[in-house]
Amino acid sequence: MIQRHFDEELADLKTKLLRMAGLVEDQIDEALAALVTRDSTLARHVIERDHKVNAFDVEIDEDCIQLLALHQPAARDLRLVTTAMKIATELERISDLAENVCERAIELNEEPQLKPYIDIPRMGNLARIMVKESIDAFVKDDAALARKVLADDDLVDDLMEQLFRELLSFMIEDPHTISRAIRLSFIAKYLERMADHATNIAELVVYLVEGRIIRHATPPVSS
C-alpha cells in the first residue's frame, strides 16, 4: 500500500512537471511571436504569466521535499525525485529568459525594425524543440533522445555566431543601428541560454536513466 501510494505521487510529480514544461514552451512561442509581429501587448502578457511558472517551480520543489522526507527513496527513485526538482529549476530559468526576450521586444518596438527576423525565430524554435524533447526524454526514460538534445545545442550556437557577425556588420556600417543591434544580440543570447538549460535537463535525464553524471565530461560521454 505504501509503495503504491509512493508510485502514485511520483506519477503526479511527472504530470505536474509536464504541465510546467508545456507552459514554458508556450512562453517561448509567444515571446518569439511578440518579437516577430512587434506585438507589445502579447509581450506584456508573457511577462505577466511568468508568475504561473514560478508557482509550479515552488510547488514541485515542495512536493519533492515531501517525497524525500516521507518515503526516503533510494537508488533510482531517489534520482527521479532529485532530478525532477532540478528540472523544475531549469524550466523556471527558461521562462525568465522568455520574459527577458519580451522586455527587449517592447524596447525594439519603439524604433523601426532593423532587419527581417529569420535567424532569431529559427534559434527560438530550436530551443523550444530542445526543451520539449528533453522533457519527453525524462518522461520516457529515453537516454538516446536526451543525447540528441545535447547534439542539437551546437546548431543553436552556430546560429548565434552567424547572427552576431551580421549584427556587428550593421553596427560598423551605421552607428544609428547600434542600440537595436545590441538588443537583438541580447535576445540571441537569451535563446542560446534557453538551449543551454534544455541541455542541462538532457544531462539530468542521462543521469536518471544510466546513473552516470556526464555534466562537464570532456569529451562528452557517449553510449
Description:
The structure is a single chain. With about 220 residues, the chain is mainly alpha-helical. It has one domain: Methane Monooxygenase Hydroxylase, Chain G, domain 1, CATH 1.20.58.220. It is built from six helices and no strands. The protein has helices at about 1-35, 40-70, 75-110, 120-140, 145-175, 180-210. Helix 1 runs parallel beside helix 3 (about 75-110), helix 1 (about 1-35) runs antiparallel to helix 4 (about 120-140) and helix 4 runs parallel beside helix 6 (about 180-210). The chain is elongated and about 65 Å long. The two termini are about 35 Å apart. About 35% of the residues are buried. The mean pLDDT is about 95.
> Mean pLDDT, as a whole number?
93
Query: Any idea how many domains?
Result: 1
Q: Could you say what the CATH topology is called?
A: Methane Monooxygenase Hydroxylase, Chain G, domain 1
Shape: elongated
Proportion in helices: over 70%
| CATH architecture type | Up-down Bundle
List unreliable stretches of 5+ residues: none
Distance between the termini: 37 Å
Structural class: mainly alpha
Elements, N to C (H/E): HHHHHH
Rg value: 19 Å
Strand content range: under 5%
Number of strands: 0
Sheet of most strands: none
Key features of this structure:
Methane Monooxygenase Hydroxylase, Chain G, domain 1; 6 helices
List the helices and strands and how they pair.
Elements (H helix, E strand, L loop, with lengths): L1 H35 L3 H32 L3 H34 L10 H22 L2 H31 L4 H33 L13
